[in-house]
Amino acid sequence: MNEKLKRKIEAIFANRVNNLALEEFKNEVEADAREAYSDYQVSHPRASEGEVIDHVLSDLGDLDAVIDMIAGETTNQVYQMDGKISCHEDTPQGDQMPDVIQNVDVNVYAGQVFIMQGTGSQVKVEQVFNHEHAELAVVINETPQQYAVTMPRLSGRGLLGLFSATTSNRFKNVIKVELPAHFKGVLNLKLNAGEVFMTDLVLQNQLDITVSAGTLHVNRLEASELMLTLLAGRAHLQQVKVQRLVKGTVSAGELYLEQVEAKFDLNIAAGVVTGQRLIGSGHFDVNAGSLSLDWQTVDAQLDLTTALGSIRVGFDSQASYTIQGYSTLGLIRVLRPHQVQSSTGNLTAQVGNDPKFKVTAQTSFGNITIR
Amino acid sequence: MEAELSKNLIRGHTDAIVLNRLNQGDSYGYRIAQDIAAMTNNQYTINEATLYAVFRRLGKAGLVESYYGDETQGARRKYYMLTSAGKQRLKAEQQAWQFTREMLDILMRDANE
Fold first, then answer.
1. A358 with A302: CB under 8 angstroms?
2. What domains are there in chain B, each with its CATH number?
3. Number of Cβ atoms within 10 Å of the Cβ of A235
4. Beta carbon pairs, A and B, within 8 Å
5. What is the ipTM of this complex?
6. Do A31 and B77 touch (CB under 8 A)?
7. What is the DSSP letter of A171?
8. Interchain contact, B68 vs A61, CB within 8 Å
9. Total number of domains in chain A
10. pLDDT in tens, B21-61
11. Which positions fall inside the Transcription regulator PadR N-terminal domain (chain B) (predicted)?
């Protein structure tokens, strides 16, 4: 989708109470606007980007009244006609708040899951799903230390029924998990299939994410630490700030990072990792995959290592840094004016006159490109 | 003047128009807006914001249901479909419109014809 159009639509929804119904409505508007943009471009090939956007927004009309209508509804009211609602909100014993910090586990096997900040002090789960698929009701197990939300894993007849439902396009299974503001426990997400949206969250503790399949979207999130395991599927992290370390492995699939601020320690066995407007530093070890990173700011040393894969890093055109390269049979290319200080066996070079950080690049057989 | 449309009169039947479009097949806001513009040769248009409000109103009345399509790129398309109650309502609206049209034909007829 056109980024400017997307931002314009996001602006329409800005400063609104963030609830599942509004998030769904925004997705609906975006999907329609994307098609409208594409259609108008085809029918008016000479129209400028601004003209196309103006036309799309004009045809869209004034959404404020609909947004007000949705914002005024509770999620339950919105969906009562659509399907069953399973709503669980744990309550503290008497007036006592629990002393033990509770961790939250979310295991997803199907459907759409929205994880966001709620208004209460407790974890809250709501589910919307088809009447005919009662077997999909979310299971909640709670102990003083742990709050586990699990989508049932279907097999046999249940899986067949689910397949029929999804292929007939009438399948619905949406879960909303609300966390307290500044949640202090560990949030542990396991995405096995389906789609998860994590939006506008501030986590004071660690976030553990394992993606085995499906798609993960993380937008506007802060955490003290992020442990990421991408086995397959796709993970898209945008506007994420991690105080300490983003530590992870990518075995396959696609990891996309945009405006992520952290110290990184990533191991990429295979798959594709792309970063845009990154802030921070860290270590990236690529075995056979592909790594492409554009940095907005580097605040400490960057270590890049590859066996067979390819690494491409880009910095701001004004950035000044030193490069220490080591190659066995691979290739290290520097596509910026640089002064070679030593090239006997290894490469020692400097870009710019006032280096602020150091890049070490080590390759066995792969290619490393620095620009 | 004969081509001029009384848009307010049509606007009063927006719910029935949307129900009828959905009776031709499951659809969504942008597509219905485009269909209406094409069918009327752009003489009558409904913006998508209006259609979203109509969808919600019809949904609350149990006349339509929504579901997500299979698109994998970008935001997922939300489709609307008629419920059996929606089909009954559409039939009633069509009968009412038939009656209204017949009455208007009689009442607006030129006595000299």
1. yes
2. 7-108 (1.10.10.10)
3. 24
4. 81
5. 0.88
6. yes
7. -
8. no
9. 2
10. 999 999 999 999 999 999 999 888 899 999 999 998 898 88
11. 18-91
